[in-house]
Amino acid sequence: MRTVTVGTRGSTLALSQTRWVVERLKEQWPETEFRIQTITTKGDKNRASLQSMAKAGDKGFWIKEIQDALLAKSIDIAVHSLKDLPTEQTEGLDIASIPKRADARDVLVGAEGFKSLADLPQGARIGTSSVRRRAFLKAFRPDLQVIPVRGNIETRMAAVASDDYDAVILAGAGLIRTDQRHRADEFVSTDILLPAPGQGALALEVRADDDLIAEVAYAINDAVTDDRITAEREFLAGLGAGCLAPVGAFATVKGDLLTLEGWVGAVDGSEVIKATTSGDASECADLGAELAEDMLSQGAQRLIEMAKED
Ligand SMILES: NCc1[nH]cc(CCC(=O)O)c1CC(=O)O
């Protein structure tokens, strides 16, 4: 029986979510052998300059080396955090499968006694390097001080134990997938922090001409997650924005009805443009594109440009 090589980054989160994927794949393909290969990316090597790479338009800093390994056939399937994957599809590659999404919300991890965003003391110091979180946090509570905290989940969790932060904000899915759900003090309501497009979801990327591998990956596709993510990413693409923009998007599905909410914020929280649309889930891509147009006509472009100059 052939062996399928699954590639990912070497971080705790990347490995945990790839093990999760491989377990699901094994259930579907018990005769196939899967092995995991870790790959170092530019983002792993050079965290300090992430923001400058983003400004230079280098969107693929978490994934470029992994995509190269796919194209070179040293791996067969790449597992990515969907929110890190640029909206433009890479030549020669396809997203073959989007497994069931974990909780998309951001979580608050507080220092001793700090258990919810609403109850934090005046002027509390919140760690996050995401412009989206900064914009929406400042809009919710202008008194909060938002302080950058870079690094992987471990580094950001350690920041709470230091005296420099009262709380940090992370993607809940990161804690869930590394068996640390209990460390989340609050799953922040999407009325306060709208998640990043694709947050909490994974993407299985394959070579576009490898039908056999695509079929292997597709066995764990989740149709509802797929529709939600398609709407959110079309919205992001329609805005002409990337994963480092102050943009939130969150789609939900009830029966055949998909509802998509989008926010674009000023980095200082002085303004947040919000809009919602809904329609048949089969129209998910059009719903995303329409919402982007709606928000561009309301001035979203100016806020996105403002964040790049920040
Ligand atoms: N940008 C880094 C990144 N990419 C995916 C996740 C978390 C898992 C996910 O959203 O699927 C994180 C960390 C974070 O935002 O806290």
From TrEMBL:
Domain of life: Bacteria
Any one annotated GO CC term: cytoplasm
Domain Porphobilinogen deaminase C-terminal as annotated: residue spans: 228-296
Residues with the S-(dipyrrolylmethanemethyl)cysteine modification: 243
Annotated keywords: Porphyrin biosynthesis, Transferase
Keyword Transferase among record annotations: yes
Residues of the Porphobilinogen deaminase N-terminal domain: 4-214
Signal peptide positions on this chain: none
Top enzyme category: transferase
Cofactor binding, note field: Binds 1 dipyrromethane group covalently.
Pfam families, per the entry: Porphobil_deam, Porphobil_deamC
Cofactor(s) the protein requires to work: dipyrromethane
A single MF term (Gene Ontology): hydroxymethylbilane synthase activity
Catalytic activity: 4 porphobilinogen + H2O = hydroxymethylbilane + 4 NH4(+)
Pathway, per record: Porphyrin-containing compound metabolism; protoporphyrin-IX biosynthesis; coproporphyrinogen-III from 5-aminolevulinate: step 2/4
UniProt EC number: 2.5.1.61
Note: The porphobilinogen subunits are added to the dipyrromethane group.
Family named by the database record: Belongs to the HMBS family.
Stored PANTHER family: PORPHOBILINOGEN DEAMINASE
Protein name (Swiss-Prot/TrEMBL): Porphobilinogen deaminase
Species in which this protein is naturally found: Deinococcus proteolyticus (strain ATCC 35074 / DSM 20540 / JCM 6276 / NBRC 101906 / NCIMB 13154 / VKM Ac-1939 / CCM 2703 / MRP)
Organism lineage: Bacteria, Thermotogati, Deinococcota, Deinococci, Deinococcales
